[in-house]
Every structure is written in C-alpha cells, then in structure tokens.
Specification:
heterodimer; A: alpha+beta; T-fold; 3-stranded antiparallel beta sheet; 10 helices; 39% helix; globular; B: alpha+beta; 5-stranded antiparallel beta sheet; 15% strand; elongated
Chain lengths: 334, 732
C-alpha cells in the first residue's frame, strides 16, 4: 500500500500533471485545441498487493478498451502464477513441493531472467530469499525480530545456485528452500503488458504494475516523465526520469518494514540475511522493466560505490538515496 | 398403500407432472450470479469515483477516488448474491449492492433485486430502500440489532448499532441483514485481514454503562485486575538443563524473591479506566481509541522489566505478547503514560502505594484484530538468557498467564442475531396458542363422530374454529400456508440450496408439520377445511350470501368433475415457472389471493384487491369455488393426500344404493352417486358425519326406525358395514 501511494505521488510533478492537462483538452475539443486529442482510457485494479493503473490511447475507443481488457487479463494471469498469497499458484506449488513439472511460460521466463541477473551480480539479487522473509514475517507476527540463530538458519536455505530452472522442471536442490518473485514479477508484468498493448496497436500508454513502463507520449504529447519520490517525504521529489522506451523500477526501505526505524525491511542481502544498511531507495531505468526491477535490488544490496559499475555493465540509469537522505545519480549510458 | 376412493385417473396425471418437473429441473439454470458489469458499476459509482477491475479470485470491485493526482482505494463493492445467496421468502435470495470501506464500514447498501412476497407489490419497495439506507456509516465491527427504537434507550454507544425494522416484514429483514453481513464478512476476511478467519462479528463488546467506584483492591476483588507473580525459583527451574542455567546470579542467590509481579487490566472498561484515570485522562484515552479498540493496562514490578531496555515507545513490545485461541494479537504501546504526564501531572494513573514506582504501559489492540473479551486473554512473558561474550548462545523461556474479563462487563456476541432461534423464542406465545388450537382440532377430528352426534355443536365448533383460523392464524400470526411455500421449496431444491429458510417463519413450519401429519391420516381436508385462513374466509362469506338471498348454483356433476381438474393445471403452471424464472413465478402465484386478502389484509394495489374480491364473492354463487376449482395449493395437497392412511368416513351399505342424501347434501360435491367418497375433494366439513349419525337426517336410519325392531335385528346397530370403495378408473 505504501508503495502504491509513493509512486502515484511521485507522478504528481511529472506525467500525471500532464495527463490531467491532456484530459482537460479532450473535454474541450471544440475550443482552442487544434488537433482533437486521442481519447485516453484508464483502468485501475488491485494486484501484486497494490493499486495498478493502465492508461492507453487510441483513436478507436473500442480497440483501446479491448487492448486494456487484454492487459488486465495478462496481469491476472501472471499474478495467478506468481502469487504467494494463493495456495494454488504455480509458485506456491513449487514452494510446497520443491519441484514443479511443466512450469507455465511466464513463471519459467521470469525465473530465467532472475537467474541470469543472479549469476551476473554474484548473487546480490536472489529469488530464493523467501526463507528470510518468512523468518522476519513470523517474528513480526509475534511482535519481535527474529533471533540471529533464526536468521542464520533461514540464510542457510537461501541460494540461487540451488534453484534449477529447466523448461521441463523447476526444482530446489536443497530442502527447505522457497522462492519469492516479489522483486521481479511486477517488472515482468509491466513488460508483458507493454508488449501486449503494442501488439494490440496501442501507440501511447502508461503502465503501472507497481513498476513503470510506457509507450509513446503523454496526453500532452510530451515524453513520459516519472518523478522519483523522497523515501523520507513521500510528497517530495529527488529526481525526474524520462521513461522513454524503458522500464522504471524502485525499491525502498519504507515499502514493507519489519522495524519502525526501517532498519529491517523486505530487501535482504542474500549473503548476510539482513537488510542492507546503506540505502533508503534505489530507482533503476533499464531496457526492460523486469531487469530494472531486479537491478534495483542488486544496487540496493551492493551500495553506492558499486552503482557505477552496475550502471555501466548493464547500461542502465540509477538513482540512489542513502539513509542520510543524500541522492546519487549514476548515468550508465554516458 | 393407496387404498381408497380413487375416483379419477389422477395417478397418470401425477406421473406426468413428476416427469414434467424433472424435465424442467434439468433445464433450469439457477440464476444466482451477480448482475453488475463495468458499465452498470460506472453508473452506480460515477466520477470522481473510479471503478477498478473486478477482482480475479473474489467477486469484488475495488472503487478508487480521484483526489488530485492520487487515487486512493476507498471501497470494495460486491453483490451479496455472489457471496451469500441466502434464500428469502420467495426462495430467491436478496441481491444487495454493497460498498464497504477499507476499515469495514458500510459506505452504501442498495437493493438490486428481491422477490420477497411482502415487498413485491405488498408494502412496496420503499420501506425496504429506507431500511437499507440505515446501514450507511455502520461498521462491521459493531453488533447490528434490528428492532424498534424503544430498544435503543437501553444501551448506547459504539458497540451496538440499532436499525429500525420494517413492520410485517421482520423475517425478510432478518434474511436481508444476514445476507449482507455474511457477504461483507467474507470480503472483510479476504481483503481487510479481519480476525484471521474467525468471525469478527461474533466478538463481545464492552458494556459502556457498567461502572461502580472501586479502588485498586476493589478492582482486584471484582476480577478486573489479574495478578501474576513469577518467583526466582520458577525462573531458575525453567532454565535448568539449558546453557542459561545459573546465568543470572541474582536469581540464583535469592530463590525466594520475586522475579516479576504483573498486573493486567482492561483499561477500556469504564469500571477500570474511570477508576484508575482522572476524568480528563479517561476522555483522552477514549479519544485515542477507535470504536472497537481495546486498551490493556500492564503494570510490572520487580527486577525484571516486561518491556526490556530495547523497548521503543509506541512500538510492539518484544517480551510481552498476547494470544487468543492460538492466534497472536498485536498489542502496541499507546504511549499513554508520557502523554498524560505532558498534559497534566494529576492525570497520572492512580496506582496503589505498593506499585507507585512500578513500570506501566497501556497497549492498544485495534478492533479489526478481533480480540474477544468474552474469551480468555493469554499473555506470555519471554525471558531470555545468554551465555558467552561473543556469539552468545541464547535460550528463551516463556511464562504464560491468563486474564479474563468478568461477564458483567461485556455484551456477549449475539449469535441469535444471525440465526432462526430468536424467531422462535420471540413468537413463543403465539406458537403456544397455535399449538393448543392444533391439538384441540386434532383431538376433535380424531373423535369426530362424538362431536358430530350433535349437529348444532358441530356447526358452532366449526364456525368458531374457522374464525380462529381466519383472525388468529391468518391475520395475526401470518400463518397462511401458500403455494409460494411450495415454489420456494422447489426452487431451493432445484438450485441445490438448503430449504432451511423456512425456519425463519415458525407458524408456517408448525402448520406445515401438522398439515403433513393430517395429510397422511385424513387427506387434504384438514387443511382446506379447517386451517386455511382464506378457505375460512370463503366459508364465512356463505351465510352472508344466504342473508342476501343469493341463490347458490350447484354445478352438474360432469362440469364439476371437469373444473376440478383446472386447479391441477394451475399447479403445473406454477411449478413449471418455479423451475424456470423467479420473476414469472412471482407473477403466476398471484392467482392465489391469499397474500392480498390474508397476509396484507387488502392493503394493496387495486388490481390485486379486485381479483381477491372477485374470488371471495364468487363463493356466494358457487360454494367455495376457488378452493374447489382453482386453488393450486389445494391441488398439490390433493395429490399428496393420496398417501392418506385412513378411510375415515363411515359408509353404510345403503349409501348411494339407493340413498342419495349425502351426495345431495355435500356442498363440495365430493361424494359419488354410488356413495363413494372423493377424498381428494373432501374438505372434512363433517356434514355427512352428522347426517350419518342422525336418526332425523340419515334416510336409511329413518327407514329403520319406521320399520321397527325387526329391522333392527336385521341390521344390528353395532355392526355398521364398511365397504371397500377403491375403484380405479371409475367414471366420475
């Protein structure tokens, strides 16, 4: 919930203001507007534990509605495979049984991306941190933090290399492992929706699946811009990013915290078992949103000093805000 | 087992009817899904509200609101029929459109569809619309009581919400409330994280009015403060055989000393809070709490702190935890002590001298956590010991204790609000009168020949009972059995629903029980002739006709026999629509004027009143014409009456051969010329029983008397010949 408000708010200064202006023009089409604005369609839905929004424009309203119907279905399909809340999702079955035969296509694809990022980041991104999440969540349910012994026990069950991803079968090579896709599923969904809208003939769209992606231009016929919110002041902005054809993903320590001081939260250093102490928020703009989503965790874990190398290596832009509130910009395309 | 009076070939018709019903049951598509689509939702929730996409795993629409550039989620909207299709009185569930906010408060409730007989054309939909409007602003965390405003004076406050009921529709309103709550609770549990699977509506509420001045010791004696002391010996024993053994030197050295003494109280109870807090501090505490929240006071004395040095104000304590029924319940520091001290020094908690320096905190449990103060509160205090300077090994031991809130201080959850039990309790006096009347009727009919010895007594009893049936059973107790009961049953079975909704209407259940019993014994006559309020009305109109000198027409036996089939057609039509469309059923059952004349006492739109009037007045020309020729309920009972066990009408050898007295006198034309009884058409009026026992009325008896004693010898009175009269396919 926090995540949703945070990013929605971050749009205020940029794209959404433009969106509002665009809608106003649509309403007054007979006025000074020279070119009749393309009608924009909007869908809001709950998914991935937050509010998602899809906006698309096409001169043919019926086509736009149909494309959005397809986009909603795409999100539902991905969530049905990757949700940990649903006991019958493919991911839940994998976690329960330790093996999943004939995995559904999206789950397979997202795990392949995840494993590739894990390998190239030496394990800074790792979808098998679920035991750590569980240790912290269980302790939170009892109003406490996990003991070092509990964290140690959970950390021993983490390790991307022990996750075997094969089109015929996904399985754990060690007992007690678990996968969470909360660090990449939203980005993957944004990519899938973007591709699907494009196929449906949509030229202009803004996709918010918790992470952001866009097509074409905003209603004001300007490039899409998203604001990066201040993690300590949701109303404030620390940066603005031109989305372009990229995916933009943010990870922040205030999204799902286990302690009131935000010291412990949902992003874990897979090697240590605790949340990284240096950073408050990381935003990555990458060629694909799934990649941006995963790399945000890599940069979060590896810290400010490693950010330059990550940006160059993956050719992405990174905005980092540390716990003191200082903002660092790393331009990987420069 | 069918051993009597089979006059016309109803067996074949019955089988055909069954086949038809089975066919329709196969074709019937239970129309139980919701009706709203995106367009309808957008019309119902216009801008600045934004209708989100319907959820995938629960039939719920999120509703957002455009607030500047933000779009906060403000409600979940759902149709009750998707989540809780509880059948109403027509057998078809209510469908309500419900908007519930994220805290479990009703934002809006609208009726999408309903087929309640009392609201369809009867009272009209307006009282229902007014009723559901009352839900706005009420929270699921409150107990909802429906009654008259008189009840309200009794208890005020947040814990109970009172709604004004709708007269004449009590049962329908309860079913509506139940549908609404059941559906809303499903959504609340799935989406609002309510009560972790328990029913948050069944949680006890604080009684705000219970207060008496008590000091600390008084509170302890009243059971409002729970004390738990843990001694050093107990602590050390718990760590024996672990690395923690002997690690606390102070504990080991003084085994008889106290380790910690805890006092726990529910500060939100006025009896506790108002006694321990300054009035202004009490008001301040109330302000800090949301409706349904709990404030728990914990006082700890001794060397061990229940908070620990790492405790952060306003956070969840690490050492002390609360469970209820295995479920953890979060307690969070209200930070009350510091706030009170900041406000004014005299606001400080009034602790006894012995506890003056004790550590105390007030913890809050939010309402949606579903803490039930009627259940024990299981507290647990964790004590940790460690060994070693670096990477110390740690052992944790927990010490549990239980606190209970005494019964006088809360209102227990009211499950009766949600069940049919209360309906029966509420109507116990009525049911007692009804039961007594049914018992009387049963005894009289069981020994009918005794009553029928006296023609005048028979007539008086009959008129009196029919008046009782009309006024008490019909108009007062609203116990008119109707074909609607049968269509509701058929619909419930066809759609695989439980017919348990009948339980909400106790007189109907009692009457049906009695009618089924008498069907087996005597056939349809007991109901049609004695217990049907409309039938009674019809019969009571007849003397009026006589006074007006309207001549009743007696139809020819041929026409009469044909018309009697008409009601079976009506029945087939109604049962057919019952399996098809609820809307059509509601229309077709209007053939039956019961609702107009009995249930609603003619307080209805004129076409219905006109029809009822026509039917009733037609009885002055054709005796009980509706009952005999049109009534679908009568047709149904006639068919079921074929399972009758008794041929209870005595016959003589002379009956029909040659005597035609009873044939001629039977106003229901239920006696064949040959003397056989058409039990399917018999209304058990006892006229022929009177005749048969009367030396003045029964022709063979008159003849016997004239013939003298030798005739008596030929036909000894002790042996009245009973003849077998089952004749399949005999012409009527």
């Amino acid at each position: 919930m926090k995540r949703r408000r945070w990013l929605q708010a971050s749009l205020g200064a940029g794209a959404l203001a433009a969106l509002g202006a665009g809608l106003a023009l649509t309403g007054a089409a007979t006025g000074r507007t020279v070119v009749p604005a393309t009608p924009w369609r909007e869908r809001l839905l709950l998914g991935f534990g937050s509010t998602l929004s899809l906006r698309a424009a096409h001169p043919d309203g019926v086509l736009a509605e149909r494309a959005l119907d397809g986009a909603v279905a795409t999100i539902r399909r991905i969530e049905a495979q990757m949700s940990l809340f649903r006991a019958d999702s493919a991911l839940s079955r994998l976690n329960r049984d330790g093996v999943l035969r004939d995995p559904p296509a999206d789950l397979l694809a997202v795990l392949q991306i995840a494993q590739a990022v894990s390998a190239r980041s030496a394990g800074s991104f790792d979808v098998t941190v679920q035991p750590l999440w569980q240790a912290f969540a269980t302790a939170r349910g009892q109003g406490r933090l996990p003991t070092p012994a509990e964290v140690r026990a959970a950390r021993e069950r983490v390790g991307w290399a022990a996750l075997e991803v094969d089109p015929a079968r996904i399985r754990f090579l060690r007992p007690g492992m678990g996968v969470t896709l909360n660090g990449i599923a939203q980005g993957y969904a944004a990519d899938a929706v973007r591709a699907q809208l494009q196929r449906a003939g949509i030229e202009h769209a803004l996709i918010n699946t918790g992470e952001w992606s866009a097509l074409g231009q905003s209603p004001a016929q300007r490039p899409w811009i998203v604001g990066v919110a201040d993690p300590r002041n949701p109303a404030g902005r620390v940066a603005r990013l031109v989305v372009g054809g990229r995916g933009v993903a943010t990870s922040a320590d205030n999204e799902s915290a286990f302690s009131d001081d935000l010291r412990h939260h949902h992003i874990f250093d897979p090697r240590r078992g605790y949340s990284p102490a240096e950073l408050a928020s990381v935003t990555v703009a990458a060629p694909s949103c799934a990649l941006a989503d995963a790399l945000a965790k890599v940069a979060f874990v590896d810290g400010v000093r490693a950010a330059g190398a990550i940006a160059r290596d993956w050719r992405v832009d990174i905005v980092l805000v540390d716990k003191t509130g200082a903002t660092h910009f790393v331009d990987g395309t420069a | 087992m069918m051993r009597g009076g089979r006059i016309f070939p109803a067996g074949a018709a019955f089988r055909a009817l069954l086949a038809l019903a089975a066919l329709l049951a196969l074709l019937a598509q239970p129309a139980r899904a919701g009706v709203m689509d995106r367009e309808a939702m957008r019309l119902a929730f216009p801008s600045p509200l934004i209708v989100g996409e319907k959820e995938a795993d629960l039939p719920v629409w999120p509703i957002f609101k455009q607030e500047g550039t933000e779009t906060p989620l403000i409600a979940y909207v759902f149709e009750s029929i998707d989540l809780a299709p509880i059948p109403g009185f027509s057998g078809t569930p209510f469908n309500l459109l419900v908007a519930l906010d994220a805290k479990g408060k009703f934002i809006d409730v609208r009726v999408l569809s309903q087929h309640e007989p009392v609201f369809v054309d009867g009272l009209g939909p307006e009282p229902l619309a007014r009723f559901v409007e009352q839900y706005r602003g009420i929270s699921l965390t409150q107990n909802i009581r429906i009654g008259t405003s008189i009840d309200r004076g009794e208890r005020q406050g947040h814990s109970v919400a009172y709604l004004d009921g709708v007269a004449k529709a009590t049962a329908s309103i309860r079913i509506l409330n139940q549908s609404l709550l059941a559906a809303a609770l499903k959504v609340a549990r799935a989406r609002l994280g309510f009560a972790q699977g328990r029913d948050p509506d069944l949680v006890a509420r604080i009684r705000p009015e219970v207060f008496q001045p008590l000091d600390w010791d008084g509170l302890v004696r009243a059971g409002l403060i729970t004390r738990k002391a843990i001694g050093n010996r107990e602590i050390e024993a718990a760590f024996a055989d672990t690395v923690g053994a002997g690690q606390d030197a102070a504990v080991a050295a003084h085994p008889d000393d106290e380790f910690i003494e805890l006092h726990v109280a529910h500060l939100g109870l006025p009896a506790v809070g108002r006694n321990l807090l300054h009035p202004a501090a009490w008001d301040y505490l109330q302000q800090r709490l949301d409706p349904g929240d709990h404030a728990l006071l914990v006082v700890g004395r001794g060397p061990y702190s229940f908070l620990g040095s790492d405790f952060v104000r306003a956070s969840v304590p690490g050492r002390l935890t609360l469970h209820q029924g295995e479920l953890p319940i979060e307690i969070r520091d209200l930070d009350l002590s510091e706030s009170l001290e900041l406000l004014a020094p005299e606001y400080k908690l009034r602790l006894p001298a012995a506890l003056r320096d004790a550590e105390w905190r007030v913890f809050r449990v939010i309402a949606p956590a579903g803490l039930d103060i009627a259940q024990p509160l299981d507290f647990s205090l964790a004590v940790m010991r460690s060994k070693g300077q670096f990477y110390p090994e740690r052992v944790v031991r927990s010490f549990g204790f239980q606190a209970r809130v005494p019964e006088t201080y809360f209102v227990a959850a009211a499950p009766d609000e949600k069940t049919w039990h209360s309906m029966w309790l509420d109507r116990a006096p009525e049911l007692a009168v009804l039961g007594a009347a049914l018992l009387l009727l049963f005894v009289v009919l069981w020994r009918q020949e005794r009553l029928a010895l006296d023609a005048r007594n028979t007539r008086r009893f009959r008129i009196a009972f029919l008046l009782f049936t009309l006024v008490f059973i019909g108009w007062y107790a609203q116990g008119q059995l109707s074909i609607v009961n049968l269509t509701a049953l058929v619909q419930a079975i066809a759609e695989g629903r439980s017919p348990g909704f009948f339980l909400y209407d106790p007189p109907t259940v009692v009457l049906w029980g009695f009618v089924l019993l008498t069907l087996v014994l005597w056939g349809r006559g007991t109901f049609c002739g004695w217990l049907c309020p409309f039938g009674a009305l019809q019969e009571l109109v007849e003397p009026l006709a006589r006074a007006l000198r309207i001549r009743q027409i007696r139809l020819s036996p041929r026409l009469d026999a044909r018309l009697k089939w008409l009601k079976h057609g009506v029945l087939a039509l109604i049962l057919g629509t019952a399996l098809g469309s609820a809307a059509w059923t509601a229309r077709v059952v209007e053939i039956e004027p019961f609702k107009t004349s009995i249930t609603l006492l003619f307080d209805r739109a004129w076409p219905y009143v006109l029809w009822a009037a026509i039917v009733i007045l037609s009885g002055t020309v054709v005796y009980k014409g509706y009952c005999r020729y049109l009534c679908p309920l009568g047709a149904g009972l006639a068919i079921l009456g074929r399972f009758r066990r008794l041929d209870w009408l005595t016959r003589r050898a002379e009956c029909g051969k040659p005597c035609q007295r009873c044939w001629n006198d039977c106003r229901y034309q239920a006696i064949h010329r040959n003397g056989a009884i058409h039990y399917e058409e018999c209304f058990q009026c006892l006229d022929c029983v009177v005749i048969l026992q009367s030396d003045q009325l029964c022709v063979p008896r008159i003849l016997e008397r004239k013939k003298g004693p030798e005739a008596h010898a030929a036909h000894p009175a002790a042996v009245i010949p009973i003849i077998e009269i089952a004749r399949e396919g005999e012409p009527a």
